[in-house]
Amino acid sequence: MTRKQKRLAVIGGGIAFLVAAVLLVMFAFSQSIAYFYVPGDLAKADVPPGTRIRLGGLVESGTVKRGEGSTITFTVTDTLATVPVTYTGILPDLFREGQGVVAEGAFGTDGLFLADTVLAKHDETYMPKDVADRLKAQGVELSGKETIK
Amino acid sequence: MIIELGHYALILALATVIVQSILPLVGTIRGDRALMAVAPAAALAGFLLVLFSFSVLTFAYVVSDFSVGNVWQNSHSLKPMIYKITGVWGNHEGSMLLWLLILVFFSALVATFGANLPERLRANVLAVQGFISTAFALFILLTSNPFLRLQPAPAEGQDLNPVLQDIGLAIHPPLLYLGYVGFSVSFSFAIAALIDGRIDAAWARWVRPWTLAAWSFLTAGIAMGSYWAYYELGWGGWWFWDPVENASFIPWLAGTALLHSALVMEKREALKIWTVLLAILTFSMSLLGTFLVRSGVLTSVHAFATDPTRGVFILAILVFFIGGALSLFAFRAATLKAGGLFAPISREGALVLNNLILTTAAATVLTGTLYPLVLEALTGEKISVGPPFFNLTFGLLMLPLLLAVPFGPLLAWKRGDVLAAGQRLFAAAGIGLVCAAVVLYIQNGGPVLAYFGLAIGFYMIAGAITDLWLRAGIGKVARNVAVRRFIGLPGSAFGTALAHIGIGVTVIGVIAVTAFETEHVVEMKPGMQVEAGGYTLTFDGMRRGQGPNYSEESGHFTVARGGVIVADVWSSKRLYSARRMPTTEAGIRTFGLSQLYVSLGDAMADGGIVVRVWWKPMILCIWIGTLIMMAGGIVSLCDRRLRVGAPQKVRKVKPALEAAE
To answer: Which residues point to the Cytoplasmic side (chain A) (predicted)?
Structure first.
């Protein structure tokens, strides 16, 4: 092969690989992106059952109930609307009533939100950023310690 | 008083690194040797000043001087001594000071071991290091000063985030920074080469040890962070594709590519421009990682505090260095002459493939990490890109690389024979399949893909050994000759083999855990049992305990196999008194390379407690593999041909450098 052919082979192979990678990334994005909602959004946005989303808000006080085994139900609120959530597993250490939470999962056909992951604040000085931003945007008063500067 | 001395030393260090960045540069432009000679002295002085400043902050933590705001916010008089010390970098200000300390440490190393570097190159490298140090010293002094005092001094501190009160904090950040920041040296060498407009094999020979060292540290740092998250968070996961993890993983991927392309440049004088670009990109990814983690655009346990001015400042540093470096590259890259020719199928070709895949993978992880941030900034829409994205893209991209790795060392430089290499790897592929079949027999079922993955892991290990085997000529020459040849193999051959074996071991661990782990979430009362991985756990009951700065409730479990008690496990939930913050201390028992992982959930009204039990088969392989990779890096570093400052070699090379122009 001449120098030019060799170079073309390397460059051609490289470009083919890159194109494959870009297609792969686009496919993966279309499959696995989860949008973030607070309960108030859900009335407007039509989220079909089975679509993975992240649901954020505050755990409504007095709604945390333990069912059989390690199944837990609680209600997520942004003070405008509420969504009941079912979760099986161990809640994070910092999960508390009246505090911020992000639940990842999908709605079942019965309208109940089935979470497979529940995230709470990382430490006591802030709540999940997504939740704080949205609650602030909706005018929910957060006590000084809860907000992020 | 001592605090103010530390503060003053930091300001003085800033002045010193400004001198270090400007005078040597002027010296190389004017050809003034006296000005160039300022660089090493300034680098050493800067290092000593920052070291003093850092020691002062450490002292303030050790004596719990709560008049220092930073100590008050992050320490507590009852905290054990080890966490008082590690707490120095368990917060934003202190960790940036550690960042700077390691940066000037590397400058000082270049100054000390760079005596055999050409004068101009050394002056330029240290000047670039000086510029980076200046930026970060300014950042600390202007936005993140750890020496600010409180008046009046509070009586008691606010304690360190309990999640960080762990031995992991002593190991993970320093190692990670040694890696992250170590790439600054490769970056400075690349910029220095661009400033001077010349570059050759000797340049690659000087850069490679620094890259190797940084890469080894980064490997260990990431692995340590992964193990820490695994045992501390109580979620049983070892990698979450969390943006802060990706922030350290992207430079690792780029650094791995750099390591391999520098090899081509050193041996064959090819890929010069690409290697320089990669050196720039690798450190740029380190800077980007620092920005992501420290600016507060991400919320995580790593974003200690969020303050928009800091984010903007780091962003400015980022734009200045990445933008400046790439512009310089655009202007000067054409002056670097292209080097040796090679056929697509050759050792060089294999290393190009390695680079292509690694940089694509790095770009993919970067895309997945930045996309949510960019989308939110542009449209306000909040999305999350989770593990499924990364597993699919990264996993598929890595597959061809893993298959190709054993081929690389078996191909000849310039022109290789892929069929011959394939024949030599027949045995390795056979070993891989047989090992996977043995696992299939023991496991009796499971996903087909998992066995395919395991076969790849074993094949990589066998393939790496094949290379050493062939090089020593085992089976072809007399035994004593083969032994002598084996011992006489260059360190870099062992380093390569070890690093590649390490990947194989990690792959085996990842696949085994992903495919065969079992998880049970059960509500248990004393006396109840749960089965996991062939072991029977019996819950014996709870006990209350008191630590120095926390109270805890621990569950005791007895582990039995076939009716015989083999171990016991304590798993606890702690409540740290100063911050009223609960943490989970998982109970972990190791059996061979596998682990039993027990974490406690909430207590129930009827006296039971929710318990989560995992069986993690072969999980230790994940971290043992990374340690083997790191060992490979260190063995390569000890290769006498590569030793930092092997003077004879370098002198021989020197004339070539002059001739290159």
So the answer is: 1-7
